[in-house]
């Protein structure tokens, strides 16, 4: 099988490598000519056999919109676009409407695995027509981890279902990371009792109910920097966490743990939290509790 791949950054370039290593022919395009196989999207389309399959792996939002719009003018009826970025599921509906008017099929794919996916494989959640998913199953099988397909791939439903599943996946990820982080801080705080925090997390990797790949990654980080002294406590958030909370509100689904993990990231961006100033002022007013001077 031969596919096109647009976007050869950290994820896209690694995906191209894994696909090629697993017998899929890939022609890649990127704005960076040093990594691109072709000069433009027209050349990409000319290089692919019909019916064409093009995987789009670029940043969500305006860039994805621009690429899909340009592809809609380059590809033909019967071709297929797989959109694998972190787009909001509502964008998939819009993209599918644009493409279906021209007879071009569309699949949305949530992809998890990060920089490790090139060796470990990528967890895949896809949405779209059954026939099109089956047509490109060799591509999904090449990307997913080894082992049973059902443990690394799911056809989650119609268009939008793949990115919806990835959105919820990332919301859960936020909450899990926050739980590990809070446990780390509590262990660090009691240095009078605990003298091997990295060792504790390392010992949790086998046999315990909190073991996970995220735990393994935290252990790896602590091996490189046992007190995390070289890392600033500032954390960004991608769109999926916010979208998960918005969906929960729209559907009256309580997600207090995921919500708290998002708000904790906001706290990390405040050198001197106005909210905590207000709390300190209130405690001083009603209980006479001491406050620290800002000077």
TrEMBL record:
> Per its UniProt record, what InterPro entries does this chain match?
6-PGluconate_DH-like_C_sf, 6DGDH_YqeC, 6PGD_dom2, 6PGDH_C, 6PGDH_NADP-bd, 6PGdom_BS, NAD(P)-bd_dom_sf, Pgluconate_DH
Q: Which domain of life is it from?
A: Bacteria
Keywords recorded for this protein, A-Z = Gluconate utilization, Oxidoreductase
GO molecular function terms listed in the Swiss-Prot or TrEMBL record: NADP binding; phosphogluconate dehydrogenase (decarboxylating) activity
Question: Per the UniProt entry, what is one GO biological process?
Answer: D-gluconate metabolic process
- Tell me which residues make up the 6-phosphogluconate dehydrogenase C-terminal domain: 162-290
The record's annotation in Pfam families points to: 6PGD (PF00393), NAD_binding_2 (PF03446)
**Which PANTHER family does UniProt cross-reference here?**
6-PHOSPHOGLUCONATE DEHYDROGENASE
- Give the matching NCBIfam families: gnd_rel, PRK09599.1
What is the similarity comment for this entry?
Belongs to the 6-phosphogluconate dehydrogenase family.
Q: Name it.
A: Decarboxylating 6-phosphogluconate dehydrogenase
């Amino acid at each position: 099988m031969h596919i096109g791949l647009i976007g050869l950054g950290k994820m896209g370039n690694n995906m191209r490598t894994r696909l090629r290593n697993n017998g899929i022919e890939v022609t890649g395009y990127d704005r960076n000519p040093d990594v691109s196989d072709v000069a433009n999207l027209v050349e990409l389309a000319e290089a692919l056999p019909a019916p064409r399959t093009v995987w789009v792996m670029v940043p969500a939002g305006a860039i994805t919109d621009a690429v899909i719009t340009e592809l809609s003018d380059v590809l033909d009826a019967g071709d297929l676009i797989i959109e694998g970025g972190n787009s909001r599921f509502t964008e998939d509906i819009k993209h599918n409407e644009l493409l279906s008017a021209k007879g071009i099929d569309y699949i949305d794919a949530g992809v998890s695995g990060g920089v490790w996916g090139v060796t470990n494989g990528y967890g895949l959640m896809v949405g779209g027509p059954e026939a099109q998913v089956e047509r490109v199953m060799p591509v999904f099988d090449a990307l997913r981890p080894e082992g049973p397909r059902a443990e690394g791939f799911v056809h989650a439903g119609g268009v939008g279902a793949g990115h919806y599943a990835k959105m919820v996946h990332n919301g859960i990820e936020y909450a899990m990371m926050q739980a590990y982080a809070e446990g780390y801080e509590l262990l660090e705080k009691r240095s009078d009792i605990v003298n091997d925090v990295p060792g504790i997390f390392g010992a949790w990797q086998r046999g315990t109910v909190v073991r996970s790949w995220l735990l393994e990654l935290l252990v790896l980080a602590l091996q490189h920097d046992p007190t995390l002294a070289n890392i600033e406590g500032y954390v960004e958030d991608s769109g999926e966490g916010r979208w998960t909370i918005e969906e929960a509100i729209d559907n009256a689904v309580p997600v207090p743990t995921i919500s708290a993990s998002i708000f904790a990231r906001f706290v990390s961006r405040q050198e001197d939290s106005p909210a905590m100033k207000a709390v300190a002022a209130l405690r001083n007013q009603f209980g006479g509790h001491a406050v620290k001077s800002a000077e």
